[in-house]
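Standup notes, protein team

Yesterday: finished cleaning the Lacticaseibacillus paracasei subsp. paracasei Lpp123 set.
Today: FAD:protein FMN transferase structure.
Blockers: none.

Input for FAD:protein FMN transferase:
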Amino acid sequence: MTTTTTFHGLGADNTLTVYADGANELLNQSISMINAYAHLLSLYDEASLLTLINKQAGKEPVHIPVRPVFNLIAQAIAWSKRGLGYNALIGPIVKLWRIGFDDAHVPTAEEVTAALALTDPDLVELDSENQTVFLTKSGMALDLGGIAKGFIVDQVYDLW
């Protein structure tokens, strides 16, 4: 038996197909999981955990209550430190350009220089024991983008 559902989430339309009996329950669990993780990791949800981390930049560490999410953030910071083109702290640059919004524009060189100073992954303090993340400078911002989406897909895969 094949069951397919399409829903909007993670900023896109998604289609899930299950080739098994009892697919509706699995699809419902999957969509609930996707929405729960999206709520934690979205930059565009004012109540998300990621938004809270960014708002607390330069103020105080934020406890990450879900261990896999803490591990994802720690992995993203580790990848960022490798200097191979990925930087989870690109948030200030994205915000500066207003990428994806109607008022997107090219900033001045001075604005870019100031924003780049907020993208250093060495300025992130991770406490694995207490599961906290601290962006040590005000204005820093995590943007997990596609890595968050890949993580969520991996979680659904593990559910299946």
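Follow-up from PR in the comments: The chain has a mean pLDDT of 93.
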